[in-house]
Amino acid sequence: MTSREDVIRFFEATYEHTVLKTLGVRIESFDAEAMVVAVDVDERLHQPAGIVHGGVFVLLAESAASMAAAMTVDLAKYNVAGMEINANHLRPVRSGTLRATARPLHVGRTTLVYAIDVTDEQNRRVCVSRCTIAVRSLDEFLKRDD
After folding, report:
1. Where are the domains of the chain?
2. Who has greater pLDDT, 19 or 61?
3. Nearest CA-CA partner of 35 in 3, 62, 2
């Protein structure tokens, strides 16, 4: 079984050429009950009206869920990938730090479902999301192109 520390090192090592690195998304904490990722808000995250683009909330939510899912499987045998996500944007954000906290709702053999709260610096919910993650063997995952 892959250790949690190995998974964190894997994420950090693969960040370099990803959107997570580009936007400055970081892992703040993790345990069996919650994965927390965060990003500092600046104009790169804004849409033309000067508020954080809703897609950033969704990116944080799916990132937290995917990382949480990776913590639950043996990455030497399985891969995880988002297969569905929904989100409700509750309030605008212009600055500060956003945090996405993913908590498991369902942990099955082939699917995992997470509830994710995205909050601002005052710990107010700015977005609520639910994400379903597929768990597939590495052999199956590498063969698929659909």
Report:
1. 4-143
2. 61
3. 62
Cα 101 to Cα 116: distance, rounded to the nearest angstrom: 5
pLDDT at 14 over 80: no
| Token pair listed for 36 | 């927390």
Q: Tens of pLDDT along 103-112? A: 999 999 999 9
Walk across the sheet containing 111-119 and list its strands.
Answer: 26-30, 35-40, 97-107, 111-119, 125-137, 78-89
Q: Determine which one of 12, 28, 43, 62 is catalytic.
A: 62
Instruction: Quick: pLDDT tens for 118-127.
Output: 999 999 999 9
Using CA atoms, how far residue 81 sits from 5, 29, 104, 115, 116, in Å, is 20, 21, 15, 16, 16
Give Cβ neighbours of residue 47 (< 8 Å, ≥ 6 apart).
53, 54
pTM confidence score: 0.89
Q: Under CATH, what is the fold of the domain 4-143?
A: Thiol Ester Dehydrase; Chain A (3.10.129)
Identify whether 62 is a catalytic site residue.
Answer: yes
Residue 65 is encoded by which pair of tokens? Answer: 């869920």
Q: Where are the alpha helices (DSSP H) in the chain?
A: 4-14, 19-23, 54-72, 138-143
